[in-house]
């Protein structure tokens, strides 16, 4: 009788674990590569900016733990942080959805939710995701070509202008209005945000700092050029660039806006007086935005030292659905401020304009002294 010889193949537990880990690693790498190929634009695939944009969506704790594998001091400093799970990291790499941050998936489904994609750099008193700065869009009839608007635009003249100005104040959304004076309308051709910019300029001028306050009707320019409201910063850019070309002395650029949050969020009582609160907005969609952020942060802390509670903080804004530059790439000393909200009065706004001008005045004189000492 012949016996057929049989072969028994044994597989150790270590081999099985290695195989499983290899498969998981392959799946994760595949997800990462596919995600980068599909999320990066054709013009910048594999460029450093694409990598920056891609990784900026990941949890910061992940990078700290990765670096901590080489330098244990990072893990000691981040002892209160939990180690991200492999599954959540893989999901975030593949889909840019963070299960711990509902904004990452709600924002794709809810219209207007992209406002909550902003990043709070420095939070002032009461500032959180529920009190972020909100921009109000003009009503549909705001872009009807009206002769009255054109007539008013032709009569506009700068109220404060110096040939050797150091500061240029512009109002990209120049018709942003305040309900106490606009009959409840969000936009108006008179008694709007321009009055606040003029007040800031007046105080700087009285302090001996030459200012150019631009009062161009940028909204009217959009109508004349047949452009959408989203192109407002393109038009105001032409205004700022023209000012720079005419005056080499210009160093500081302030774009003044008003928020759409209600009165209780945009108002603070300081020394017994109601004042419109200020929010600094920094555009992140240009390479040198960190310098603009440093300026905004510095002014925030100075404002808080002198007027505790007046600043709502510093906000980063960029990505899809917004301009993301706000012409701040034109100068490291360019800033965008949201002064007050839609329900504030000019008494409240003027007090804040004076306070803000005082802070800026001191900062500018310090910078001029440093330049003279070099």
Explain what this protein looks like in three dimensions.
This protein has 374 residues and is of the alpha/beta class. The protein has two domains: 13-101, no CATH class; 140-373, 3-Layer(aba) Sandwich (Aminopeptidase), CATH 3.40.630. The protein is built from 14 helices and nine strands. Strands 1-8-7-9-4-2-3 form a seven-stranded mixed β-sheet, with helices on both faces. A two-stranded antiparallel sheet has the order 5-6. Strand 7, helix 13 and strand 8 form a beta-alpha-beta unit. Helix 1 (13-39) packs parallel to helix 5 (86-95), helix 9 packs across helix 14 and helix 13 packs across helix 14 (346-373). The protein is globular, with a radius of gyration of 26 Å. 30% of the residues are buried. Residues 41-50 and 147-158 have low confidence and may be disordered.
Question: What features would you highlight for this structure?
Answer:
single chain; Aminopeptidase; 7-stranded mixed β-sheet; globular; 2 domains; 374 residues
Number of continuous helical runs: 14
N-to-C span:
104 Å
What is the SS-derived class? alpha/beta
Q: List the helices and strands in order.
A: HHHHHHEHEHHEHHEHEEEHEEH
Return the domain count.
2
């Amino acid at each position: 009788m012949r016996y057929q010889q049989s072969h028994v193949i044994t597989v150790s537990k270590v081999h099985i674990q290695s195989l499983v880990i290899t498969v998981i690693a392959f799946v994760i790498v595949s997800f990462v590569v596919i995600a980068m190929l599909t999320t990066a634009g054709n013009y910048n695939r594999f460029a450093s900016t694409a990598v920056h944009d891609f990784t900026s969506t990941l949890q910061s704790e992940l990078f700290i733990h990765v670096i901590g594998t080489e330098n244990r001091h990072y893990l000691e400093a981040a002892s209160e942080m939990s180690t991200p799970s492999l599954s959540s990291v893989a999901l975030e790499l593949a889909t840019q959805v963070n299960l711990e941050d509902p904004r990452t998936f709600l924002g794709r489904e809810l219209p207007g939710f992209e406002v909550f994609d902003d990043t709070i750099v420095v939070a002032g008193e009461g500032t959180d995701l529920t009190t972020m700065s909100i921009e109000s869009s003009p009503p549909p009839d705001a872009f009807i070509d009206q002769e009255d608007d054109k007539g008013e635009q032709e009569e506009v003249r700068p109220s404060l202008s110096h040939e050797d100005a150091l500061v240029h104040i512009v109002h990209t959304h120049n018709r942003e209005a305040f309900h106490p004076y606009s009959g409840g309308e969000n936009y108006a051709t008179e008694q709007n945000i321009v009055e606040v910019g003029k007040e800031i300029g007046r105080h700087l001028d009285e302090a001996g700092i030459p200012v150019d306050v631009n009062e161009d009707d940028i909204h009217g320019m959009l109508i004349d050029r047949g452009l959408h409201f989203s192109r407002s910063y393109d038009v105001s850019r032409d205004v700022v660039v023209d000012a720079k070309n005419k005056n080499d002395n210009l160093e500081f650029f302030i774009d003044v806006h008003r928020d759409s949050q209600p009165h209780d969020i945009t108002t603070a009582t300081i020394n017994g007086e109601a004042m419109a609160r200020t929010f600094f907005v920094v555009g992140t969609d240009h390479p040198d935005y960190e310098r603009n952020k440093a300026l905004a942060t510095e002014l925030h802390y100075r404002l808080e030292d002198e007027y505790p509670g007046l600043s709502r903080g510093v906000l980063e804004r960029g990505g899809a659905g917004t301009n993301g530059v706000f012409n701040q790439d034109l100068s490291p000393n360019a800033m965008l401020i949201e002064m007050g909200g839609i329900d504030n009065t000019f008494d409240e706004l003027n007090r804040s304009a004076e306070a803000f001008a005082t802070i800026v005045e001191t900062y500018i004189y310090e910078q001029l002294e440093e330049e003279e000492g070099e």
